[in-house]
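Cross-posted from the bioinformatics board.
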Amino acid sequence: MDINVMNGMLQPKSVAVVGASATKGKIGHTVMLNLQESKYKGGVYPINPKSEEILGLKCYKSVLDIEEPIDAAIITVPAKFVSGIVDECGQKGIKGLLVITSGFSEVGDEALEQEIVEKAHNYGMRVLGPNIVGVCSNSDNFNGSFAPFLPFDGTASLVSQSGALLIGIDAQTYTRGIGFDKLISIGNMSDVNFADMIEWLDQDKNTSCISLYVEGLKDGKRVIENGRKATKPIIALKSGVSAHGAAAAASHTGSLAGTSKIYKSAFDQAGIIQASDLDNLFDRTLVLSLQPPMKGDNVLIITNGGGVGVLATDSAEKFGVPLKFAPENLQEDLKKYMPSFGSAKNPVDLTGMAGADWYHDTVKIGFEHDWVDGLVILYCETAMTDPLAIAKSIKKAIDETGIKDKPIIVSYVGGERSDKAMRWLVENGIPAYGGPDVALNAMGALKEYAHVRELSKEVPQTYSDTDREKALDVISKARKEGRDALTEIESKQVFSAYGLDVTHAKIATSEEEAISFAEEIGFPIVMKIVSPDILHKSDAGGVRVDVNSVEDVKKFYNEILANAKAYKADAEILGVVIQEMAPWGTEVILGSVNDPTFGPTVMFGLGGIFVEVLKDVTFRVAPFSKLQAAQMMEEIQAAPILSGVRGEAPRDKEKLGDTICRYANMVSDLKDEISESDANPVLVYEKGNGLKVADARIILTKK
Ligand code: COA
C-alpha cells in the first residue's frame, strides 16, 4: 500500500469537487456545503463547466485549470462522465478519487467500473467506491460526503459497505453518545477494499478501534493477513450470510460450509471479533475503543443491587466470562468498606445503601487486586444516592490506581440522572451501559478480543517432509487422461505425499491381481469398486469389508464388478481396490473447499450422524497453526467423544491435530489443483496409536 497516496485520498490537504453544484438539494451542492460546515482547512475547488462561482468559491471548468496541487477529487457527476474525469484527474496528479456516483457494478456495469479503476491505476491513483457516501473525519475537520454532519467525536473509526447505513449510524452516534473519528463509505470496493482499510486505519493515529459493517469481503485472504498484523481491535458486523452460503454449495463439504461459519472462522483467524447486530456493533465498538483487552479469566462485579448482580452473573456465563468467588484476602479487604449484611463473594453486593464513598473504596481495592482481570460496576438508581457522584467516585478510584492494562465497565439502571452520569463516564473514558447484560457482553468482547488476538498471532504450521512433485505427478497423469476426479488410490497417493497416514491399497484389474494384492497386504482386507462414474460406492454394491480368504476375494471381485454394471451400465470401471482393513476407530471427517472469498478452507467434524444430521462441523481457512487445529477439535459439540467419554480411552488428538494441519497444508499448497477434497472416514485410535485415512477423494480444479 502506498501510504502517501492513501493519505492523499483519505486525509487530503486539498480537494476538487467534480460536479459541484449551486443547486440546493443536489449531492454536488451538499458535499460543498459539508466541506464548509465541517470547517475543512484544506483548499476546496469546485468543478463545473457551467458555473463561475459556487458557495463563494471560484469554480473551474476542469481540474486541469487549477494551478495548485490537488490531493483528492470527490466525484458527483453522472456515471457516463466519470471515465473522462478520471483521465483529467490523473493528468492533474491527483492521488485518490472518492467516487460518490452510482450506476456501476451494483447495476451490472462491471466493465465501466473496471475501466475507471484501470485508468486510475495507470495514473497511480486509488479509487474509493464507486457508489459511496464519502468520507467523514473529525480529526481532519473533513466532511467529504453527503452525510449530514461529522459524527459525534471519538476515537473509533467505521468502514461501511452500505452508504445508507453509514448515514444512519452517523446520526445515531449522537443519540447513543458513542464517538467516532472517521466514517468511511467503501461502496462497490472496485479498488480500495476492507483489507486496505484495515491496514490504513491501523496506522492512523486518531483511530483506536476499527469497526466494520461487512456484506461480503473481496480479497478475504488479505483481510486475514492484515487483521493478524493489526495492532488495534477490529470488530465486524457481517450481514447476508445465509443466502450467499447456500448458493456456493456444490459438494458434500460445500453443502455443509455455509459462509457464515467460514466467515466466523476467518474473522477469528484474523483476530477480528464479531458483532451480532447493529446495537451490539455500537456497544462493542464503544468498549473496544476505550478499554484494553481482558487478558485473564477473572471478572469482579461490584453492585448495589442483588437483582442486577444475579442478572449480571447469568450474563457473565453467557458471554464467556463466568464468575468465580473472589479469593479470601480480597473478600476480607472488601468487607471493611461495606455493611455486614452485604456480600463480598462475587458479585460484591454493597447493598442499596451504597454511596459514592463505598463505591470509591471497593472499586479501588477490587481494581488493584492481582486476581481481578476485569471489573464491572453495577448501580441501580436510588433516592438517597447521586448517580453522577457515584460515577465520579468510580473514575477517581480507577485513576488513583494508575492501572491502564485492565478493563472496567459500568452499568446503570435508572432514569435521566443515570443517563447523564453514564454520558459523563463515557466522556471520561469509562464505557457505561444501561443494562447488566450489555455490560457483560462488552466484557465478553474484551475477553474474546484478547483470545482471538493471541490465536491469530500463531504462525501456520509448515512441514519439510512433504513431496509436492509426487502429488503433482499423480494429478497431471489424471489430467492427461481427461479426468478431473482422482481415484481413491490416486487421492491417497496425494495425501500420502503430504504425510497423511492412509490405508495401504492397490488397484486390481483382474481376479489374479486381486488375490495376489490381498496376500501381499494381508487379510482381512476391504474391496471397493474404482470408477470415476460411481462416487457413492456402497450404494452401488461396490464395497465389501472384512474379506478374509482367497475364495472370498475371487467371489467378491466378480460380484462387485457385476453390481457396478447393474448400478450404472455405462460406468467406466478402472478396477477393484484391494485395501488394508483398518481396525475400527472413532470416525472423523476432513473436507476442503476452495472458498471464493478465502481460498482453500478446511472442514472438520465427527463422521456419521454428527456430520450428516447434526452438521456438527467447524471450518478454518488453510493453512493454520496446530493451536487452531486443537481449537477445531474442541469447538465441535461432539468434542467430548475425542477426549474419551463413559470410560472410553481418549483418542489420539495429537496425531489428529497434526493430520488436520497437514491436510490444510496440502490443500493450501495445491490450491491451484484441488477444487475440493475429503478424507472420510479418518479412523482415529486411542491416544498414542495414531489414525488411518480409510477413504479419500480429490476433485481437481477445471483447467
Ligand atoms: N464536470 C463537472 N461537472 C459536471 C460535468 C463534468 N464533466 N458534467 C456534469 N456536471 C455537473 C452538472 O452540470 C451538474 O451541475 P449543475 O447542478 O450546476 O447543473 C452536476 O455536475 C451534477 O450533475 P447532474 O447531471 O445534475 O447529476 P445529479 O446531481 O442529478 O446526479 C449523481 C449526479 C452523481 C449524484 C448521481 O448520478 C448519482 O450517482 N446518485 C446516487 C449517488 C449515491 O447515492 N451514492 C451513494 C450510494 S450509497
